[in-house]
Amino acid sequence: MDPLISSLKVAASGLGAQSERLRIVSENLANSQSTGSFPGADPYQRKTITFNAELDRASGARMVEVSAISPDKTPFTTEFQPGHEAADDLGYVKMPNVNVLVEMADMREANRSYEANLQTIKQARELISMTIDLMRGQ
Predict the structure, then answer these.
(1) DSSP state of 10
(2) Where is each Flagellar basal body rod protein N-terminal domain found (predicted)?
(3) Which of 28, 91, 124, 130 has the highest Cβ tally under 10 A?
């Protein structure tokens, strides 16, 4: 298969993977304060995403795919909020294991990776267009 077409496919798989990563980060951020609804209930548990390289037999290129979306095993923190509906007998509420700074850093990294894949697609399209223009000139 043509290397330019292969690069388009690899970059497109990267776009899909980073898009899914951004979705998971957004879900984590949206639920960063979601507690349980009764005393002792577990709050929202942060999700993590894992990627895998999969060989595409048609192009011979290694594509990126999401291999797993799994809960983060980091322990929950507790906050003293005696009036909260999820507070235990001592007034402590379990809070999600979501660190907003970590999520923001992950979002920036995913955004940069997405942009890099998009730039690869633009460059490959431009090279294909230049090749077609050269072939028309002959």
Answers:
(1) H
(2) 8-33
(3) 28
